[in-house]
Specification:
CATH superfamily of the largest domain: Glycogen Phosphorylase B
Number of domains: 2
Radius of gyration: 21 Å
Order of helices and strands: EHEEHHHEHEHEHEHEHEHEHEHEHEHH
CATH architecture of the largest domain: 3-Layer(aba) Sandwich
Strand content: 15-25%
Number of strands: 13
Strand order of the largest sheet: 3-2-1-4-5-6-7
Distance between the termini: 20 Å
Shape: globular
Largest sheet: 7 strands, parallel
Helix content: 25-40%
Length: about 425
C-alpha cells in the first residue's frame, strides 16, 4: 500500500554530527513532521562515520524523527589517523591538504579511485535499508542530499528499481566544487564523475539547491529539461529568539564556523590591528580552525585581544554571535558565485552588522546588499574594509543590520516551500 505522507531521506550527515552541513535536513525533517508529514531518515552510526565534530545537543531537535542507522566502510578515518594521529582531526573539510608527499598521494587516490567521493562505502548499507522500508511501508517519496554526492547514486538506483518519486538535494556543487581542482584528477576520472552527475540530474524528479544564479545555470546545461528548486538553508527562528543578546565593553568582532587556508581571512584582521589605537578590540573565533591559522591571526593582529573558543554547540554559537558588534565571514576561494553559506542567514537573523570577504559581484553579495548594514568586500580592498569597520565601531551598541522580511528565510517557512514541492 502506497503511503503519501512518508518521506524517506538519505543523508550522511545527521546528529550527533556537528557543523553547518547537518542542520539543513535536521531542520527540514523537524518542520516536515510539524506540517503533518512523516519523514524517515536513513543515516549511519556516528561511531563509524567520518565526522569532523560532534554536537550531541542537536539530537534534541530531532528526537521525534524515526532514524535508521547503518554500518559503513570508508577510508577517511584511516587517512586522518595516519596524517594527524586522530581519527577525525585530519578528515578533509572545505580544503584539500597538499603539504607533503603523503597528502598529495592521498589527494590523488581520493580523486581517482573514490568517485564521486571517499564516502561512497556507505551506499550499499543505505540501499539495503531503503529497499526494506520502500517494500514494507509503501514509501513513494525519497530525497537524497549531498555532499557526499555519492548518496545520490542510491537514489538513482531506487528510482530505477522501484519507480519512486525522487528529489536530489545539491547543498553544494558536485563536479564544479571548488576543491576538486586539488585532487589531481585524471581526464578519465573527470569523465566518470561528470557522467554520474548528469545521470542524477537527468533522472531525478526534481533538483533542490541552496542557491540560484551561476549554480543553477551550470546545472541546467547538464539537464535542460529538469525542474530546479532553490531552497536556502535559512535560520531557526525559535533558536534565534531563545538566545538573549549581550554586550561587551570592548568592540567585539566574532567569527564562527570553518576557517581554512582557502579563505582570505588575514586582510580584515590586519585592518582591525590598525584600528586598535582608536578602539579596544576583541576578536572571538569559534569552530573548526587549525592551530596554525589561529597563530597567523595573532601574529597579524598583536594589538587586539584574540580568543579561540574551540568548537561550540549550536546554541553556544548563536549566543556568541549575539554578543558581537560585528560578524565576520570569509567565502571560500572559487566558491564565491555558486554557494551561499547557511551561516550568513543566521548572521543576518541576529541583526548584527556583517562584513563578508569575497566577490562583490557574487550571488551572496547581491543577497547581502539587501540588508542595511552588511557588505561583501574584496580581500584586496583594504580601504573599503576600513571604512565599513569604522562605521560599525562608531555606532557600537546602536548599530542594527536589518534584512527586510527576514522571516521569509526562517527554516519553518522554507520547509513549507519544500512541502509544496514534494506535493507536486
Amino acid at each position: 500500500m502506497k503511503d503519501s505522507k512518508k518521506i524517506l531521506i538519505l543523508t550522511y550527515y545527521w546528529p550527533p554530527s556537528g557543523g553547518s552541513g547537518v542542520q539543513r535536513w535536521m531542520y527540514f525533517t523537524k518542520y516536515l513532521k510539524q506540517l503533518g508529514r512523516e519523514p524517515i531518515v536513513i543515516t549511519l552510526d556516528e561511531k563509524q562515520a567520518s565526522y569532523t565534530v560532534l554536537d550531541f545537543e542537536l539530537l534534541e531537535e530531532v528526537k521525534d524523527i524515526q532514524v535508521i542507522r547503518t554500518d559503513t566502510k570508508e577510508p577517511l578515518k584511516i587517512y586522518s589517523k595516519i596524517l594527524t594521529g586522530s581519527t577525525n582531526k585530519g578528515i578533509p573539510q572545505g580544503a584539500v591538504s597538499k603539504k607533503g608527499w603523503f597528502s598529495k598521494m592521498a589527494a590523488f587516490i581520493r580523486g581517482n579511485f573514490f568517485i564521486p567521493d571517499a564516502r561512497k562505502g556507505w551506499n550499499t548499507f543505505a540501499k539495503i535499508e531503503a529497499e526494506k522500508l520502500i517494500l514494507q511501508q509503501g514509501i513513494q517519496k525519497v530525497i537524497t542530499t549531498g555532499p557526499p554526492h555519492s548518496t545520490h547514486l542510491v537514489g538513482l538506483q531506487l528510482k530505477v528499481q522501484f519507480g519512486i518519486q525522487w528529489w536530489a538535494d545539491f547543498r553544494d556543487p558536485w563536479t564544479d566544487i571548488f576543491y576538486n581542482k586539488d585532487l589531481y584528477r585524471s581526464a578519465w576520472s573527470k569523465r566518470i564523475d561528470a557522467r554520474w552527475e548528469e545521470k542524477v540530474l537527468q533522472t531525478a524528479d526534481g533538483i533542490l539547491t541552496t542557491v540560484g544564479g551561476d549554480l543553477i545555470r551550470k546545472l541546467q546545461t547538464k539537464a535542460p529539461d529538469q525542474s530546479f528548486y532553490v531552497l536556502p538553508n535559512g535560520y531557526d527562528a525559535p533558536m534565534m529568539s531563545s538566545v538573549p543578546k549581550t554586550q561587551l565593553k570592548d568592540f567585539h568582532i566574532v567569527f564562527t564556523g570553518l576557517l581554512t587556508e582557502n579563505q582570505d581571512y588575514l586582510s580584515p584582521i590586519g585592518v582591525l590591528n590598525t584600528l586598535a589605537h582608536q578602539h579596544q578590540i576583541r576578536l572571538s573565533l569559534a569552530g573548526n580552525i587549525a592551530p596554525g591559522i589561529i597563530e597567523k591571526i595573532k601574529e597579524t593582529a598583536p594589538k587586539i585581544e584574540v580568543e579561540y573558543k574551540g568548537y561550540l554547540s549550536h546554541q553556544e554559537v548563536i549566543a556568541l554571535m549575539k554578543s558581537g558588534d560585528l560578524l565576520l565571514n570569509f567565502v571560500f576561494r572559487g566558491a564565491d558565485r555558486e554557494m551561499i553559506s547557511g551561516k550568513l542567514f543566521e548572521y543576518l537573523a541576529t541583526a548584527i552588522p556583517l562584513l563578508s570577504i569575497g566577490d562583490p559581484q557574487s550571488e551572496a553579495a547581491r543577497f547581502l546588499a539587501q540588508a542595511s548594514l552588511a557588505q561583501m568586500i574584496d580581500a584586496n580592498d583594504i580601504d573599503s574594509q576600513k571604512i565599513f569597520i569604522q562605521k560599525v565601531a562608531q555606532q557600537k551598541g546602536k548599530a542594527k543590520n536589518i534584512l527586510p522580511e527576514i522571516e521569509n528565510w526562517s527554516r519553518e517557512n522554507i520547509t513549507k516551500e519544500l512541502s509544496v514541492i514534494i506535493e507536486k
